What we know:
Blueprint: E1 2-6, H1 20-49, H2 54-82, H3 84-102, H4 108-136, H5 142-170, H6 173-193, E2 201-205, H7 266-269, H8 278-290, H9 292-308, H10 315-336, H11 340-363, H12 370-401, H13 408-461
Antiparallel strand pairs: 1-2
Helix pairs in contact: 1-5, 1-6, 2-3, 2-4, 2-13, 3-4, 3-6, 4-13, 5-10, 5-12, 8-12, 8-13, 9-12, 9-13, 10-12, 11-12, 11-13, 12-13
Amino acid sequence: MTLLFTRPGTGAPARPVPGPRRRLALATLLTSFGNGLYLTISALFFTRTLGFSATRVGVVLTLAGLAGVLASVPAGRAADRYGIKQVSTVLLCGEAVAVAALAFCTTFWAFAAVVCIATALDRGAAAVRQALYARAFDPATRVADRAYIRAVTNAAIGAGAAVAALALQTDSRAVYQGAIVVDAVSFLGMVALLPRLRLREVVEADPEPDLVPAPDSVPDPEPGSDLDSASDLDLGSGSELGSDSGSGSDLGSDSGSGSVSVSVSAAARRPPKVRVSRRYQAVSALNAVLMIQFALGEIGLPLWLLQDTRAPRVLVSGMLIVNTALVVLLQVRAARSVRGIASAARALRLGGLAVAASCVVAACAEGLSPVAATLVLLACGVLMTLGEVLNQAGAWTLSYDLADVRAVGAYQGVFNAGVAAGQMAGPLVVTQTALRHGLAGWVVLGLVFAVAGAAIEPVARRGDGK
Length: 466
């Protein structure tokens, strides 16, 4: 049995759904601007305004990261069971409330609880959002569309950070609280745009590999059998994509919500288990290692620059500007060059090598003159950004093409749990390697990126999918 996207009520392949990229770009613009505000002022607000020590804040943020990892898979499973838009709406509204509450916390334990809740809701919403992209975008162009969304994300975060600089100048509790509330309200902008977003339908069809977004055909299950011996994610009977119940969560509804119906065979509608293949889990784990690169840019390089080189402090913001500009310029182009599993795996291998090279270059900045250190660190930033855009393009492609389209939420939940795990572990890994051991630590860290990127290729190309 093969699943493919079609036009509602016909057997013909689906044409591009009009308008999803524009609506999702607008929603991303709103939420990312708010995120830019929050990310810029949050550390100062937590430490100086609320009066919590940096160590205690760090512990809370680590625990919050763990909560985000644990929330990703259940959120994806819920999206498969109750509907992508419905679950996304609940998570975004919950996140808006939690972030707004964060602005008015006065005790440490209230702060800790709210941060953990907000982060869990955020990572859950991110997992469901990836499933939303998979259903909203045309499979032939969705990686390029996803790259466009990321370019918008970076530009909007940069704009939010620029506005937040004004809040930093005032150093006022009321202004900080106002910025955090604006971030909370921004999530409601995406909620408002969701009802009119159309999602693509999934139907059963004869095997036609050129029309199938996932690489492997899924055989009809024998009665009472598992769909995949590698699976341990049980969605239960409530996960039918084509349920005819009146619960309101049915993706097969033709209601005014704008969702396109889902129609699959009885066997596909009621799988006893939907399990994520070992291949997908392995790719997700290796991608989690590559996600450490974001901690490298956000924590490793700035601290290395300030503590171990003679480069001017202003270069910290300069490198952020360079990164943002290059992502906006290059991400869509990089995504267009990645088509299919083989090219995605190759992009991840090259991206891992680029990030590894940036680690070696960064280590060379120690002991140089201010001008030389500046040039070396800028070169490091360029290499790191090139690796970043290649890794993202490759990761998006594999996360979609290796997934079972009947359980896109469960698969994206697993993939985003890996992303969250990499982001959670990143600060500890970077500080305990590069920042603690200097040149040797940078080399070890570079080898980690190179090996992870190279290992994805044989795993992703493995044909059995088990």
